[in-house]
Amino acid sequence: MTFSSTLLTKLKSSERVVVFTGAGISAESGVPTFRGEDGIWIKFKPEELANFDAFMKNTELVWEWYKHRKRIIQNILPNAGHFAIVEMETYFKSVSVITQNIDNLHRRAGSKIVYELHGNIERNYCIGCGKNYSNEEIFLQETAPRCTSCKGLIRPDVVWFGENLPTDEWNASVRAAEFADIIFVVGTSAVVYPAASLPTLARRAGAFVVEINIEPTELSRYADEVLIGKAGEVLLRVVELVKNL
Length: 245
Ligand code: BJW
Ligand code: ZN
Known about the structure:
Layout: H1 5-13, E1 16-21, H2 23-27, H3 46-49, H4 52-57, H5 59-74, H6 80-91, E2 94-99, H7 105-109, E3 113-116, E4 119-126, E5 132-134, H8 135-138, E6 154-158, H9 167-179, E7 182-186, H10 198-204, E8 208-213, E9 225-228, H11 231-243
Parallel strand pairs: 1-2, 1-7, 2-3, 7-8, 8-9
Antiparallel strand pairs: 4-5, 4-6
Helix pairs in contact: 6-11, 9-10
The structure holds ligand BJW and zinc ion.
C-alpha cells in the first residue's frame, strides 16, 4: 500500500483527528458486519428487526437476535485497529472517536473520547418508565425481559431506524467533525444517515478525508485518500507512519 505525499503532509500538520468507525473495524474481532456477504442481515432486512414496530410486534424474535449478539460481544476483544486508534493519542493533540458501533470495543481498548451514535448493547432500559438495566440484570431471562418496577418491556439501548440519535453525542460529533484537520473513515458502508453525513460535513469544513475499507463505498468518491485493506492492518501502517514523521 502506498500513501500519497499529500497524506504525509496532512499527517504532519494535523492536530485534531477524528476517527469515524463502523462495523468493519470490529469484523476482525469476530463481530459480523450488517451488510454484504458476511452481513448479519442476509436473512432479515434491517427494517424487519431494527425498528420499534418490529420490537412491539415480534418482541421475542428481536430479543433473540439481541441476546445472540450480546453473547458474541461478551466473548470478544478489541483488535489491532482499536488499539492503533488509541496509540494515535500519543501523536496528535486530540483524537475523537465517533462510532456507529454498539459493541463498546473502543472504550474497552482505551480510547478516551468516544461518541456512540447508535447506542450501546451493554445497556438496556424500560420503555415504560425508563429504568436502566445492565446485561447482567436481564441476560439470563428466557423470554423478553420486563421491568421490575412497572412491568414494562425492556429494550436494548440502541438506536433503531426512525429513532433520533442521542442529542449530546450527535452535537459533540458534529463539533468534532467541524474542527477536524483530518478524518479517518473506517469500515463503514456509509449508507445510514445522519451518521454518514459526518465525513462530508468534515470535508466541507476543511478536513482531509481518509477512507479505510476492504472495498470502495458510497463515500469513496468524496474521500481525499482511499486506503483499501483491513482496518487493523491499515491503521497499524498509518500509526507507524505517524511515529516516524
Ligand atoms: C471492513 C472490514 C475490515 C468489513 N476492515 N473494513 C432515505 C434516505 C436517507 C435516509 C433515510 C431514508 N429513509 C430513512 C432514512 C433514515 C435512516 C437511514 O439512514 N436509512 C438508510 C439505510 C436509507 N436513518 C435513521 O432512521 C436514523 N435516525 C434518523 O434518521 O432519525 C431522524 C428520524 C426520526 C424519525 C423519523 C425519521 C427520521 C437512525 C439510524 C439507526 C441505525 N441503527 C443501526 C442498528 C443499531 C442497533 C443494532 O446494532 O442492532 O445501526 S442500523 C446498522 O447500520 C447499525 C450500524 O451502526 C449502521 C451502519 O452500518 P455500518 O457500520 O456501516 O456497517 P455495514 O455492515 O453497512 O458496513 C461495514 C463496512 O465495513 C463495509 O463497507 C465493509 O466493506 C467494511 N469492512 N470488514 C475494513 N476488516
Ligand atoms: Zn419500567
